[in-house]
Design goal:
alpha/beta, 7-stranded parallel beta sheet, two-stranded parallel ribbon, 8 helices, binds D-galactaro-1,5-lactone
Length: 264
């Protein structure tokens, strides 16, 4: 069985992947600064920081692939973003390369392209248009992935994740939701696609109202099954498509609440 290192394994997506990936045939080794209860008997759970060279080197030793999730999931001052997204990704990719690990899946975000306006079937390789320092960090993360593909021949998939939640809470989430089951299917596709070199793929479910094109994910074998529409009666929020919630990929992150002046 292939073993996968999941960084940020105590977080929401990390916990979901620890649940889901064994059902897809992977043994998971988790690494997180916080101790997480194992969700499967015998699961390997390591406590450590990806910026701690020794802890990271021990964590990647002997694994077949890395899924790098460890990072903040929100806007923060630029210095914090540089550590959380840029230095951490550089450390993980370099540790993977040194350990002979040939494949990495990186948790990018829709906010790497958050200022992209609404259009029909937006491709997953839309060029960078970050909406925040957080989005800038994700652009840099993707660039580091590309560097390790071109310079060292790693296979790297960058997931431009939408809204990973147990269930959609707002009207925007009816387009952007990613379920836990689909997160497991998406990461499995990225870990197993035979022809992967470098790809950016949307991390969303098969949402009826989705406007981000699934083609790149499908090309890797991702077949999402869940649809946020099942929760449409429960959600609230603006419905006007000209509202920034819907007019841009990044929704609320494009608004004045996230002006970057004070965050630097
Ligand atoms: C993200 O990338 C964030 O981590 C999360 O907090 C949400 O803002 C999500 O995107 C989203 O766009 O809904």
């Amino acid at each position: 069985m292939n073993t996968v290192l999941v960084t940020g394994s105590a977080g929401a997506i990390g916990t979901a992947l620890r649940r889901e990936l064994p059902g897809h045939g992977f043994a998971v080794r988790g690494l997180d600064r916080r101790r997480a209860e194992p969700v499967h008997p015998g699961e390997q759970v390591l406590v450590g920081d990806v910026l701690d060279h020794g802890a990271l080197a021990a964590a990647v030793d002997g694994v077949d692939a890395v899924v790098h999730l460890a990072s903040l999931a929100d806007e923060a001052p630029l210095d914090v973003i540089l550590d959380s997204h840029v230095r951490s990704t550089a450390a993980v990719l370099e540790a993977a390369r040194r350990a002979g690990v040939s494949r990495a899946v990186l948790a990018s975000s829709n906010h790497a392209v958050g200022f992209t306006p609404r259009t029909a079937a937006l491709p997953a390789d839309a060029p960078p248009r970050p909406d925040t320092f957080y989005g800038v960090g994700k652009v840099a993360m993707e660039a580091l992935g590309r560097l390790y593909v071109d310079r060292y021949g790693l296979a790297v998939a960058c997931l431009r994740i939408g809204s990973f939640l147990d269930r959609p809470r707002t009207v925007r989430h009816l387009s952007t939701w990613l379920s836990a089951g689909d997160a497991g299917r998406l990461v499995t596709a990225c870990l197993t696609a035979p022809d992967l070199t470098f790809a950016t793929v949307w991390g969303i479910s098969a949402n009826t109202r989705g406007w981000w094109d699934h083609a790149a994910g499908r090309a890797l074998g991702y077949e999402p099954r869940d649809d946020a529409e099942a929760y449409a009666d429960e959600v609230t929020g603006p419905t006007d498509l000209t509202d920034r919630e819907h007019a841009f990929v990044g929704g609320p992150f494009t608004g004045p609440r996230f002006d970057v002046g004070d965050a630097g």
